[in-house]
Structures are given as C-alpha cells and as structure tokens.
Amino acid sequence: MAYIPYADAGYYSGEYEGSIIPSNELNKALKQASRHIDALTYNRIVGRGISSLTPFQQDLVKECSCELADFEYENADYIESVLKQYGINGVSMSFEASWNLKIQSGVAIKGSTYQKLSQTGLCRPSLGVR
Fold first, then answer.
1. pLDDT at 126 over 90
2. What is the overall mean pLDDT for the chain?
3. How deeply is 26 buried, as exposed, middle or buried, from its count of CB atoms within 10 A (0-12, 13-18, 19+)?
4. Distance CA 6, CA 12 (A)
5. How many CA atoms, within 13 angstroms, populate the side-chain half-sphere of residue 1?
6. Is pLDDT at 128 greater than 70 in this prediction?
7. Long-range pairs, 47-51, Cβ under 8 A, ≥24
8. Which of 53, 55, 82, 117 could potentially form a cystine with 64 if both were Cys, beta carbons 3.0 to 4.6 Å apart?
9. Domain ranges within the chain, ordered by starting residue
10. Do the strands 101-104 and 91-94 form a parallel or antiparallel pair, or are they unpaired?
11. Do 117 and 60 contact (CB within 8 A), yes or no?
C-alpha cells in the first residue's frame, strides 16, 4: 500500500494557497513533509489514520505539512548539508536550533510550525505510541 501524504496538491494550492514548490516536485515534497510529521508525532497519526483525528487536528496536520514542505524546499541545501556551520571572511552561518528553528527527532522545522503542530496534542513523547 502506497504512503499517502496528509496534504495533497489540491489542498496545497487551494486551502493553503501555496505556490513555492513546482508542481512536478510537489507530491514528493508533501510526502517527505508528511513522513517528518510522523516522526514529530511519534507515528501516532499513521498508526491510527488521519481520519481518526478531530477536524481541528486534521486541519493543523495538513497545514503544518504544507508549511514544512515549503520550508524544506526553500532550505534544502542547508538541511541536507553535512556541515553544522561555516565561515568565510569573518561571516559565519550555522544551522542548529535557535529561537525560530527547532530540531526535533532529526527533523528541522520552523518554531512556529512546530508550535502549531503541538496544538494537536500529538507531539508529546509522554503520551506513548499507540
């Protein structure tokens, strides 16, 4: 059975009004973002199915999926880099957790997107995997 991303192209361009990711790369980006959402929620969604969530939770998961896909697409070079930081002529750049970036379960995500996803109640490790 093929993995179905939480948000599809119709949701991305319609409800979410996304336009950053080219259509030929959109399904792959949404699938990767959904897999990362699974890691951030300890596989609680994939274990029960998105339809078992409340409408509020479903909307947040879909929206966060699109936000994460956009973030990962725009920052792919940095995210996939093996370097944690580098400097050139006195200017340095680092890719690690900060006030606006969270790295959780090996997934780099904007802090605001993670906070939104946390509103689903599925990101707490103390809940246990069901």
1. no
2. 88
3. buried
4. 10
5. 3
6. no
7. 47/129, 47/130, 48/130, 50/6
8. 117
9. 9-120
10. unpaired
11. yes
Q: Which amino acid is at 23?
A: S
Q: Is the pLDDT of residue 82 over 90?
A: no
Q: Residue 59: phi, psi to the nearest 5?
A: -60, -45
Q: Are 65 and 114 in contact (CB under 8 A)?
A: no
What's the CA gap between 25 and 27, in Å, rounded? 6
Q: Give the per-residue SS3 of 62-120.
A: HHHHHHHHHHHHHCHHHHCCCCCEEEECCEEEECCCECCEEEECCEEEEHHHHHHHHCC
Contacts of 43 (CB under 8 A, 6+ apart): 129
- CA 121 – CA 99 distance, rounded (Å): 21
Are the beta carbons of 95 and 103 closer than 8 angstroms?
A: no
Q: Which residue has the higher pLDDT, 44 or 94?
A: 44
Q: What is the mean pLDDT of residues 10-23?
A: 97
